[in-house]
Design brief:
Length: 134
């Protein structure tokens, strides 16, 4: 896991900000290994903290407890998630959907919302909110 402090006032206030931000994150990552990136934002969608959870060719861990602990520590109002699929298929898997739903339920107890979850695969990007999954 690697942590990076986001430079303020980076704002992730919508897809047009989030998609290029995370695309840049994945540009510096090994495309053969799955990674989960989590951006914590405040009420004005200003980025407070970004973390990366590295996986391997078959998947990345979804560290629910760590994400929730980070949200509590940073006072996050919202989370934007992004991960990649080395397979080249940007379709969210059933485990992706279940994990995101579990995180949304846990985050709600902190008054923190899952704002979106993006799945990257090569040049493709699938957005949970657009699919009605959030």
């Amino acid at each position: 896991m690697r942590y990076q402090r986001a430079e303020l006032p980076l704002k992730l206030d919508g897809l047009f900000a989030a998609q290029p931000f995370f695309a840049g994150c994945f540009a510096d990552s090994d495309p053969k290994r799955e990674s989960l990136w989590v951006a914590h934002v405040d009420e004005q969608a200003r980025c407070l903290h970004v973390s990366r959870h590295q996986g391997d060719e078959s998947g990345a861990d979804f560290p629910l407890r760590q994400i929730i602990a980070d949200a509590a520590a940073h006072g996050s109002a919202g989370l934007v998630l992004a991960h990649n699929h080395p397979s080249g298929d940007a379709t969210p898997s059933d485990p992706d959907c279940r994990s995101t739903c579990r995180l949304a339920t846990a985050a709600q107890a902190l008054d923190c919302a899952i704002l979106d979850h993006l799945v990257f695969a090569g040049e493709q990007c699938t957005i949970f909110r657009r699919l009605g999954l959030l």
